[in-house]
Amino acid sequence: LFETSWFRGRPRQEALPFSEQVLALSPWWQEAAARGALEIGWECRFHLSQRAVVDGDWDRFDELGMAFSPWFRAQRAFGSGDDRAQEAILAELAAEPDDFSLVAASAFVASPVWHADAFRRVIGLMVAPGRARQTQIYGRLLLAGAATRAGRWREACGHLDSAAVVDATVTLTHRAHLATLPFVPASPAELEALDRQLATLIVVGTDSEQPLWRDWQGYENLTAAYLRGLVALRLGRDDEALLWAATLDTLRTVRDTGSAARDLAAGLRARIARRQGDPAAALALLEATARQVPLGLHWHNVITGQPAERLLRADLLLSLIHISE
Question: Can you give the pTM of this predicted structure?
């Protein structure tokens, strides 16, 4: 429930009573927490620790024994506002040879409570000279996302340009995703250019013919078809967007993506229905989706995780006065 509720439009808190029950049935968790060890079911401690972060209950966070990892020490240092702990963890992360620790720490200072300054400081370590090429690219993409979130699209484009120098293909999909967000002031010329570039990434209706080292996630054709549909919508080309939705309905990918392609096709059609003044029909399209996606694709990818569709669903529910949802 903790890993999938949000994807299905449900609150993560639904998982917490079950996590509490696991701890009640597993008295050895306290010894494991004290020793910085991981027992079977330790994920339930993690679930509850994230509730403590939201509540600012750092005594509970400490009791749950999350200090075993620099990711969680970063989360505590910045969440609690402990200046000395912040400097200590930044020094530790800077000396950390494992780049994954930096990537994970950036996630935990950004969620479930957003700390913009902490996020930028950790990302600064990711883009530092000497870090792995992929780590630096990812850091630039994260900075672009943060700038977009703050309404600084031109700044975001600068970070994307820096990332594109190293890996143009990976950067293109992120640029297109950000540019098609409804609040981003991308110009028609930018959108047209993105559509032309995305056309080089897709083989319509069949598996990608690119070698897998280029098709970096195994579903590049799905990503490009969806993004081209969003670009068409932003340019006011609803008929073209419907063609991309039809492509997604029957698309096959190298990697198993579950119902993602059909779900995303419904998302394109829902946007058109809303624009045509029928929010109820738009919501019905989204509610009918299967949302059965392999677990890693829920939270690893901004396309198959469908955050834009979840935001659209929330907007539609609000417009139809379903406040509780």
Answer: 0.85
